[in-house]
Input
Amino acid sequence: MKFFIDTADIAEIRDLAATGLVDGVTTNPSLVAKTGRDFLETVAEICAVVPGPVSAEVAATDHETMLAEGRHLARIAGNVAVKVPLTPAGLRTCKALTDEGTMVNVTLCFSAPQAILAAKAGATFVSPFVGRLDDIGADGMALIAEICAIYGRYPAIRTEVLVASVRNPGHVTAAAKLGAHVATLPPAVLRQMFHHPLTDKGLAAFLADWAKTGQTILRPAKAAAE
Ligand code: G3P
Output
């Protein structure tokens, strides 16, 4: 499963990219607005930090302007994935950009029929928003299961399921069990995934017992006999 980081905060991206576990980044207009920074400069900076796909969303809603914005964003760096909303104009733009060799992430997906359309439009990624479905009492992970089952029936579909609106490590585990290609994680969720109280407790016990040996590791040592 690929892990993308769902933020436009460059400091967070740098910090988490250093773990070596980050395969890409997703942004959206709300995440960009939160930074208070210039969008185009931020996209360029993120693309320089993370070599994987970096989703940058268009702001227009008509095809012609979305296409122009998408082409403009794609020129920033080769790893830009242009994000378009799952609307008729958005999918028309997806098809045009995909035909030009640009990665496209079709976002704001909330149903299986929408995901089928995204695949037909040649999307590189489709982003079903699991958290927002859960928020209204629907079952976001059931949608992921549906989409993975449908896509799995058609080997010709190259669109990757990019699980978005992830709220907790449980979402990541459930998405992985379903074989989703990508999960995009808020920084806090990725950090939560590292931690378990028994890991902390076990490590403390190991270190306490090691201290009792009075030994160090970084000292001359004989290599094992060949
Ligand atoms: O990439 C989409 C994601 O940022 C949406 O998450 O928490 O606003 O539903 P959320």
